[in-house]
Fold this protein.
Amino acid sequence: PADFLWMAEVYWGMEGALQALGFQYTYDKVLYDRLKGDADGVRAHLTGELAWQNRMARFLENHDEERSVAAYGRERIPALMVLIATLPGLRFYHQGQFEGLSIHLPMPLNAVKPEAPDTALAAQYEKLLRVTDDPVFHEGDWKLLEVAADSDASNASLLAWRWKSASDYRLVIVNLGAGTAQGRVWVAHDAPAGNGKVVLSDALDGQVYERSRADLDHGLYVR
């Protein structure tokens, strides 16, 4: 049928080969592994050709791997969920992921010890999925952005990208490190000309930030 999609669980660098054979999507196991602590590797991975990235299935959990809270640590999940939900490609979620379940259910078993859901995490996922349901995250133009140093080297932990359409603009900045990080995101090429104010509204917590348009020529400071 026309609406049937093929997705390959694939390793050993064979993603492009299987895409060429006709699979619409291929597992992004490289990203999954690098998210465990290789920010530079994640950044390098996201410089790949966009046509290839659009056919990658991005995930933090699946039936074979540990639960995400066990694999990455509960404290890192809010940043990682934003990353997975806003990258190009297929955003792939697993049963129990939203509730923060921690016990992996092997494929041969049909039951697992009951767990209390992480209601705070579930609420964060619910809010994030509402935000990323916006058409700009699915039909817009995606671009990886440079994050330069400000006064230290902590910018190495930061990744940034934007989604852009004729009427909408979404800027995403994720800290993959364990501590506070700061840097300057190069967005001036996307900002309107002139000397006025640029207003940025955080879609997750509602905070609003005003910046001078001229300041963006030196990079948008984030912390």
In short: The chain has a mean pLDDT of 95. The two ends are 48 Å apart (CA to CA). The first strand starts at residue 7 and ends at 8. The chain is about 25% helix and 20% strand.
